[in-house]
Amino acid sequence: MAILGTIIKAAIDLRDSLVSETSPVEAQKEVLKDLLTKAKETSFGKYYGFKKILEAEDMTKAFSDAIPYHDYDLMKSEWWDRVIDGHEDITWPGKPAYFALSSGTTGKTSKRIPVTEAMIDAIRAAGIKQVGALTNFDLPADFFEKEIMMLGSSTDLTERGEFLEGEISGISASNIPFWFSGYYKPGTDVAKIDDWDERVQTIAERAKNWDIGALSGIPSWMELMMKKVIAHHNLKTIHDIWPNLQVFTSGGVAFQPYEKSFNLLLSKPITVIDTYLASEGFIAFQSRPETTAMKLVTDNGIYFEFVPFKPEYIKEDGSLDQEAPVLTLSEVKKDTDYVLIISTVSGTWRYLIGDTVAFTDVDRAEIVITGRTKFFLNVVGSQLSVNKMDVALRELEQQFDIEIPEFTVAAVEIDNEFYHSWYLGTDATIEPKKLSEALDKALQEANKNYKVARNKALKGVIVHTVAADVFYEWNARNKKKGGQVKMARVMKEDKFTEWEAFVKSL
Hints:
Elements lengths: L2 H16 L5 H16 L3 H5 L2 H6 L3 H8 L5 H13 L13 E5 L8 E5 L1 H17 L13 E5 L6 E3 L2 E4 L1 H6 L10 E2 L2 H4 L4 H11 L5 E6 L1 H14 L14 E5 L7 H5 L7 E8 L2 E5 L8 E3 L5 E7 L28 E8 L6 E11 L4 E7 L3 E2 L6 E2 H15 L5 E9 L2 E9 L6 H15 L1 H7 L3 E9 L1 H11 L14 H13 L1
Parallel strand pairs: 1-5, 3-6, 3-7, 7-8, 8-9, 19-20
Antiparallel strand pairs: 1-2, 4-5, 9-10, 10-11, 11-15, 12-13, 13-14, 14-15, 16-17, 18-19
Pfam families: GH3 (PF03321), GH3_C (PF23572), GH3_M (PF23571)
GO cellular component, one term: cytoplasm
GO molecular function, one term: acid-amino acid ligase activity
């Protein structure tokens, strides 16, 4: 009998029963008040009159009326450059301990996003909440004795002046609680290896020494790691070396595109739990097995606002029109796409994180990520978001019994006609014309605006197939392997030209 696991599970259950949960709407009001109170003496707080906002009869409206939307470029040029230069009390009291490097999916120079000690505490607290929620998934007691493989970026952070820099997964892993260190794999020595291939090779060599019960990371890189372990030990599946693997905590991107290819590496089903950890904070996690949606962390250092995701509110570069209307958590509706806006204990204020979300359950504050503001294909009115693309590709997987874990698409003009040009990451040998016709049909069924566009100015769909590894090599060339690196689902014309040249060069 797993005595230790039983004790740990019982302790988690007891803790959850003793902690009463405030409603998400009320929790958000308290978070906003706390943020404004703590930051009122900062340069940002003084400039935008936080004291006056705190005294307003309707604090949430006063807050949104007083402060403009900020994307990264605006936040950096007007405020964070001074933080980077070492000045105190700019957008949050004191100085940040870290900067999270995030190149996102653009391949441009890394963004440098402040990460304060308050944010580290908030991320840790959200992680504990997520661990507590594991008891909702009917896992056996012995699961809570097993080790957890966290495959993120290197924890060997870079010194830059008085700050430490790295990706958020590396920063988080370098701040794990002492009581968790015994469960954490690959361990601090391996996690510090900067070269991804070397780190994964080391994991493969040491894999037989560990009893892994859970995996945590971005699906694409986790798949490559598992393939490396399987190949190194000449196995059929990952369960041949980690028989007690029962959970995968997916983060950064939706798991559904990877589900079929991921399951091929397993000998038995595992529980998949989605999380939403961004460079700006721990935003949400799946808290119950009845849904794949994630619960917003509404009581822990992040205040959320929501802008209806409509083309007229989104500029060409993906930023927001300052006149775009905004809603609080108390005003949102189910099954509607919103641009996510956050204000946090790291000193981000009314910040456009770049993601779009939709609520599946408003009362529980449960969401799904539906796409990116920059990954929104709206040539000639097609209005295709990433989640609609994912729905169509899952139809293709079913129809042809294939796996398509990766893709990218761009709008191209050929002989004065507009097309959507797709590259699908798959080993399938289906005729491209058949895939084009099936994808076009699936997209029309998934999105009425796309169907209208196809009957007017959008001429058609062009499909190319390449091995999924091509996408990973592209990422390696443009950024680096592993960590928070994700493939751009929608490309602009100039980047797409580079991509096509890269594919042809292989």
